[in-house]
Design goal:
Blueprint (H helix, E strand, L loop, with lengths): L1 H17 L32 E5 L5 H13 L2 E4 L19 H7 L21 E9 L2 E2 L4 H6 L6 E8 L7 H9 L3 E2 L3 E4 L4 H10 L3
Parallel strand pairs: 1-2, 1-3, 3-5, 5-6, 5-7
Antiparallel strand pairs: 3-4
Helix pairs in contact: 2-6
Bound molecules: flavin mononucleotide.
């Protein structure tokens, strides 16, 4: 059943993209006004770690990848949590009246307020992984405000994403444009059910 749903999702996504109805790449959003209270979720391995793994995950796939990256690097984890989380109905991209469908259609609705949009001692990290699901071919927009509000100067930034079938495409490049700072790498796409071995192998090959 899950495989069938994935297949249906892939086929429909391709159809949507081919029909030119995919997400626009206008990622400009109004910067959120919420306070930049800080919380970081430490992996507990090494307080002096210079690796930070930031991610947004609506249904857990990107979260699993982020956890493996943090475990492999000994880095800290930081989850981006919308103040108004997405319910299953909100995520129903087959319903043109759902929250994501409306946000996809109207970029002005993509300014998703986060519980926290800054990280303790952000300056101390040299390498920042940033993870997200692919939504209509681009990074899920809850990551946008964090990327826009933080200074990545002097950091290596490594995007990663999960998707049913789409590649990472220009998602990292679009985030880099929004950030305006940092040494952004090409990044990596994983399938929704990627194994921790696959993620670990990729991370080890980065020589961080
Ligand atoms: C609104 C929405 C749009 C999506 N768009 C795409 C897409 O364009 N291409 C694709 O391969 N998968 C797409 N997916 C599937 C997700 O990228 C995939 O399930 C991802 O692994 C979910 O990650 P998460 O569990 O961390 O939220 C979409 C899912 C949703 C909810």
């Amino acid at each position: 059943m899950k495989k069938l749903l994935s297949l249906l999702l892939s086929v429909t996504m391709v159809a949507v993209l081919l029909a030119g109805c995919g997400a626009t790449t206008d990622t400009s959003v109004t910067k959120t006004k919420q306070s930049s209270k800080t919380t970081s979720v430490r992996s507990g391995k090494d307080d002096k770690s210079k690796v930070l793994v930031i991610y947004y995950s609506a249904t857990g796939s990107t979260k699993a990848v982020a956890q493996t990256i943090a475990k492999t690097t000994g880095g800290d984890l930081f989850e981006l949590v919308p103040t108004k989380p997405y319910s299953d109905d909100d995520l129903d991209w087959t319903d043109k009246n759902s929250r994501v469908s409306k946000e996809n259609k109207d970029t002005s609705l993509r300014d998703v307020e986060l519980e926290y949009n800054s990280v303790d001692d952000f300056d101390s990290y040299d390498t920042v992984f940033i993870g997200y699901p692919i939504w209509w071919g681009i990074a899920a927009w809850p990551v946008n405000s964090f990327v826009q509000l933080n200074d990545f100067k002097g950091k290596a930034v490594i995007p990663f994403c999960t998707s049913t079938s789409s590649g990472i495409g220009d998602s990292g490049k679009l985030l880099e444009e929004q950030a305006g700072s940092g040494k952004w790498q090409e990044g990596k796409r994983f399938s929704s059910g990627a194994s921790s071995d696959e993620v670990e192998q990729w991370v080890k090959g980065l020589n961080i």
